[in-house]
Amino acid sequence: MLSRDTGQEDITAGNLFTKQVLLEEEVCFPLSFRLKQRLSDATVWLAASPLARNAGWIFGGQVASFGVQAAYFVVLARLLGSAEYGVLAGAAALVNILSQYSGMGSGILFLRYVSPDHSRFREYWGNILLSVALVGTMLIIGLHIVGKWVLGQSSTSILVVLAIGDCLCSQLTGAAAQVFQTFEKMRTTAGLNFLTNVLRLALAAGMALAVHRITAWTWAVASLGVSIVACFIAIVTVTSNFGRPRFSIRLFLSRLREGFIFAVSGSTTILYNDVDKVMLGHYGMAVANGIYSMAYRVVNICTVPIGSLHAAALPRFFRNGVNGIKATAPLARKLLKRTAILGALGAFGMFLVAPVLPRLAGPDFARSVAALRWLCLIPLFRSLHLSAGDAIAGAGFQRFRLASQFLAAAGNFGLNLYLIPRYSWLGAAWASLLTDGSLALMNWMLLVALTRRERRSSTSEAELVPIIS
Fold it and tell me: CA gyration radius for the chain?
């Protein structure tokens, strides 16, 4: 009994001593103390928060994925040179814009309707497969017909090969990753997103060892094989984990309108990001396109941490959105506090390390240094428009987000139409900065306006209750 009391006294004395040390440290070294405290709080948040863990898996997967992607693009740039790289970039950009329609928004529909009710997996997984098969095939035929008018006769064959890989295979692989994202199994989501890129790196490295130069056509055909393998693995993984799909034409038709809105939203996002590359290709500026596309690739890599947090938070936006935009707006503000810092750090890093780019990709890309420095603010602008946009979409107001994206895409097209023929890739860079900046402003203005409207509506209903009763 005596020893127990003595031990208790020792513990109490130890606690008092620890508190005294912390108090003295706070008084004598306030800056050091606050820094330690914030690091401690951040560590606790990372360990305890499901959002942080999920974002960590997404971030880790995307960092690995884009790291691998950056490596194979460096190898590919050396294999192709700036001119062939520009040809490939123009064709890939056009396919990327239209491929968003091949799934008719079925992946986002899966997130929206299966996140609150996991029992609906089979019908919405079947809807993904059905949408991609039907609409994707139609898009491939359409690209074959109109491709020569957009990029010229020489690019038509490349367009078809890239379209098969993107409109069918890559869309299914991405949708499979969204299935695991819905169930918040972010480790598998990260793995599926990583899969295609690591296979492409292996392909590019093998070709670099075998030959010194290749054409855009050669790479398009070779990468199609990689896309097919990744797609097969993704579908098998989903089926083995969750079960077989159930196909329903009725569900496909009933969700077609809503899915089309999501598809248009995805397409407009890609449109204002990639239409400049299509237009550079249309005007025959292959070398300028290669220089600009290489710099834009680095911008996309530096946006990875921001995209990781938003991918992890998207199911939560949809769940909170059941209670209206008043439940999604606070999450947007909370997320922005982190993503804005990441965007600012990315901008500073890109401006600082831009001269390294031609040393990695080759002397053909020397002018990509200036292009990257012009584009370095884009991650910061994206952190702003993504946070507000996800809050708007999560609350069921996707049509408003679509409207702002459509205005941004139309403005981007008009700017590029005027600037690219006069200033080449520099005009494209100016148009991109203006577009992302204006979209950030429009989305936050929309979020504030919708929040105020919902509050006024709730207040009016509350005032009517006593009158009715």
Answer: 25
Q: Buried b / exposed e across 319-339, counting CB within 10 Å, b at 16+?
A: ebbeebbebbbebbeebbebb
Q: What is the pLDDT of residues 121-171, one digit of tens each?
A: 899 999 999 999 999 999 999 888 887 788 776 677 788 899 999 999 989
Give me the phi and psi of 336, to 5 degrees please: -65, -30
pLDDT tens-place string over residues 59-76: 666 667 667 777 877 888
Residues in the chain: 469
C-alpha of 449 from chain center: 26
The separation between CA 452 and the C-alpha centre of its own chain, rounded to angstroms, equals 29
Burial of 179 (C-beta count, 10 Å sphere; 0-12/13-18/19+): buried
Tally of CA atoms within 13 A in the half-sphere of 374 that contains its CB: 20
**242 contacts: CB under 8 Å, gap ≥ 6:** 121, 125, 179, 183
What is the pLDDT, as a whole number, of residue 16? 44
For the chain, the maximum distance between any two Cα atoms, rounded to a whole number of angstroms, is: 95
Closest CA to 316 of 339, 335, 343: 335
Of residues 378 and 151, the one with the higher pLDDT is: 378
Rounded to an integer, what distance in angstroms lies between the CA atom of residue 12 and that of residue 16? 6
